[in-house]
Specification:
single chain; mainly alpha; three-stranded antiparallel β-sheet; 10 helices
């Protein structure tokens, strides 16, 4: 009996995920629409530090060096794991972590409660649901937009390689790519205008 070649073939590789980074201002508006609770403090920390929800659940009071304006992110074991890292804190992150500390929101949390609050606010402000991870993506996108440096975003994210950072930062790179094409277009137009 002949074998079926289609059944023996491997499934095609899936396409890379769609870029999820959003403009930062609407995300902050989303957070500010929620009540000032430990959930809001949790969301504010995610937004202003770029750490993952899992990393936030692993924080201990000793990881907050608020006088030094520094967050120590513990190492994680997901995948190949990642070393711990430092995240410098701006005023907003500092305020968020102070509220987080004041609420004693350390340790495990009810992910469904946080996600429901986030999506309820998201539907009210944006008219569509968003993911908690969109906070991280948007933070990293904002870092790349502000610094034009993917390596800085990679270090802040705790990525061991630039590949995931590049994916997160793609929406930040798009304006730079457009600017590059526009500069090229202008240089071609200028060279055509010069008499030879």
């Amino acid at each position: 009996a002949a074998s079926n070649v289609v059944r023996q073939s491997t499934a095609p590789r899936s396409a890379p995920p769609i870029v999820r980074g959003m403009a930062f201002a609407p995300l902050i508006e989303l957070i500010e629409t929620s009540k000032p609770t430990d959930t809001q403090a949790f969301l504010r920390v995610l937004a202003w530090t770029g750490i993952t929800p899992k990393e936030l659940s692993l924080l201990r009071p000793d990881d907050l060096r608020l006088d030094e304006r520094l967050l120590i992110v513990p190492p994680r074991r997901k995948g190949r794991g990642a070393a711990g890292r430092f995240v410098p804190l701006n005023d907003e992150a500092l305020s968020a972590l102070r509220d987080f500390d004041r609420c004693h929101a350390y340790g495990r949390y009810d992910r469904r409660t946080v996600l429901r609050a986030w999506q309820r606010a998201s539907r009210a402000v944006l008219g569509r649901p968003t993911r908690l991870y969109d906070l991280r993506h948007s933070f990293l996108t904002g870092i790349v937009l502000a610094t034009k440096d993917i390596k800085t975003a990679q270090l802040l994210a705790g990525h061991t390689t630039g590949k995931p950072t590049y994916r997160y930062a793609l929406s930040a790179i798009l304006p730079m790519l457009r600017a590059g094409v526009e500069a090229f277009t202008q240089s071609v137009a200028a060279s055509e205008e010069k008499p030879q």
